[in-house]
C-alpha cells in the first residue's frame, strides 16, 4: 500500500483502525517529498523533525486510548503567509527571508489542537501577488501534471504539494482566486470559504477585506475535513463572523446513495456565456458538466450579473489600495529586511523597502498609493467601493432564487514558464471568473471536471455568504455522478 | 495623463525608489493600468453607499481584560539591531 496516495480521510480511518501508525504516515510523506521535491519545489521550508515528534505524540495518544482530533496523523502543508511559531514564515519575499514568528496563527493552533501534522511551508507568489507562483523569491514551483508549466498561484506550492502526493491537505489564501485557480491548474479541489468564516489572525494581510484562508484536498470530502477543522469565530479577528460555526458541513450528505443534485437550483451568469471562451475544448467540458447537473435533476437557469464587467477594475483599485496600506508596516525596523546603507531614518525605510520587495509588490503598492492619494481617493477608491455595493447586490439578487452559480474557474489552461502572457485579453477574462467572488465575500470552490490536452480544468461552484453547505452538496453530488 | 513627476511623487509617499532607467518604462505601464481602471467612472453610482466590508455584522468590541502578551525577547528576536531591550535605529535628534 502506498500511504501517500490515500485521501486524508482514508489515512485517518486506517490510523484509527490501527492498520498504520501516525509515524508510518509522516515517514511515507517525508520520503515522497525527498524524492519529488527537487523537481517540484512546492515547499520553502520543511519541518521534518517536528513533524515526526508530532506523529509520535499522536501515536502515544492512540496507544493510551485517548481521544484524538479530527485531523489525527494527517500531514498538512501551510502556505508561507500564515505564521507558525518558531518556523520561518517568508511570504516568499526577501523582505521576510529570515522572519521567525513568535506566535501561531489561529488556524495553526486549530490544526495542532486537531492533531494534524504540519510538514512544511509552501511556496507562493511574493506576498500572494500573482497567479503563477513565478514571483516567489525562492524560485518557481512546477506543475506536477506537466513540469514545463506553472501550477497557478498565488497558492501554487500548496496546490502542487497536494497534487503530487507530498501532502493530502494544504492551506492557502484567496484574495482574488489564489486558491481556486491553482486548484484548477493542478487538478485538485480548492475551497475559498465565505469572508469571515475562517480567522485571519496570523495571516499576513494582502488586501484585508478580500483575503480569506482556503483549503486544498484531492477530493471534496478531504477539503471539507480540513475546512471543518479550521472554521469558526475567533475573537482575535474582528472580521471573523459569529455565523461561522464549525463542524456542520457534512452530515447526512455523506450517505452515498442520496442524489445531492436533485432539485438543486443552479444559475449560469449570462455575461460569461456572452463572453465565450477562446479554447473551445474548455467550453465543451463545461457544457458537459452542466449536463451532468441537469441529468441528476438540478434546475438550470440563466441569471444576469450586470456589473460583472466592472469587477476587475473594482478589484484592482480596492486590492491595490489595501495592499499599499497593509504593506506600509514593513519598515525594516521591528522585523524584515533592513538595508545596510542609509544616512537618515527616511533612507532606512525607503532603502529597506526598495531592496526587500520584488517588482510586482512594488508595482501594486504604487498603484494603491496613487488610488488613495489626495485628489484621487474620491474618483478611484470611493468610486470602486460604490461599484462594490452594486456587484454585491447583483449576487444577492441571483441567490434569491438559486442555490449555486456554476462557471469555469479559469478560461485558460496552465501555461508554460516565462511564456509572456501572450493573450492579455484571455488573461483578463480569466480573472473575471474568480475576482467578483471576493468582492462580494461569497464562498466558492474549484473541483476537477476533466482535462483538455492532458491538462486539468476546474469547475467553479459558488454559493451565497455562509451557504457552504450548498456548494459542498453540489460538489459532492457532481463528484459522485462523474466518478 | 500620468507623468514621470507623478510617478516620482507617488514613489516618495510609498517610500520606494526606482532606478532612473526604469522610471520611463514604469510611467508607461502605470499609465496603462490607471487608464484601464478609469473605466469604472462610467458606472452610475448616484445614491449608492460604499461597501468597505461585506459583513453585515457590526464590529465587536472586546471586553477589557488582562491578556498575556509576547515577551520582550520574542518581540525583539526579528530585529536587525537592538540595545537595552529596545529596537535600535539611527540618532534622529541632536
UniProtKB/TrEMBL annotation, chain A:
One of its GO terms (cellular component) is glutamyl-tRNA(Gln) amidotransferase complex. NCBIfam families: gatA. Keywords: ATP-binding, Ligase, Nucleotide-binding, Protein biosynthesis. It catalyses: L-glutamyl-tRNA(Gln) + L-glutamine + ATP + H2O = L-glutaminyl-tRNA(Gln) + L-glutamate + ADP + phosphate + H(+). The active site is at residues 79, 154, 178. Its EC number is 6.3.5.7. This is Glutamyl-tRNA(Gln) amidotransferase subunit A. Heterotrimer of A, B and C subunits. It is an enzyme of class 6 (ligase).
Automatic annotation (TrEMBL), chain B:
It is an enzyme of class 6 (ligase). Allows the formation of correctly charged Asn-tRNA(Asn) or Gln-tRNA(Gln) through the transamidation of misacylated Asp-tRNA(Asn) or Glu-tRNA(Gln) in organisms which lack either or both of asparaginyl-tRNA or glutaminyl-tRNA synthetases. The reaction takes place in the presence of glutamine and ATP through an activated phospho-Asp-tRNA(Asn) or phospho-Glu-tRNA(Gln). Keywords: ATP-binding, Ligase, Nucleotide-binding, Protein biosynthesis. Heterotrimer of A, B and C subunits. Its EC number is 6.3.5.-. This is Aspartyl/glutamyl-tRNA(Asn/Gln) amidotransferase subunit C. The keyword ATP-binding applies. PANTHER family: GLUTAMYL-TRNA(GLN) AMIDOTRANSFERASE SUBUNIT C, MITOCHONDRIAL. The keyword Nucleotide-binding applies. Belongs to the GatC family. Signal peptide: none annotated. GO terms for biological process: glutaminyl-tRNAGln biosynthesis via transamidation; regulation of translational fidelity; translation. It catalyses: L-glutamyl-tRNA(Gln) + L-glutamine + ATP + H2O = L-glutaminyl-tRNA(Gln) + L-glutamate + ADP + phosphate + H(+); L-aspartyl-tRNA(Asn) + L-glutamine + ATP + H2O = L-asparaginyl-tRNA(Asn) + L-glutamate + ADP + phosphate + 2 H(+). GO terms for molecular function: ATP binding; glutaminyl-tRNA synthase (glutamine-hydrolyzing) activity. It comes from Paratissierella segnis. It holds the Pfam family GatC. SUPFAM superfamilies: Glu-tRNAGln amidotransferase C subunit (SSF141000).
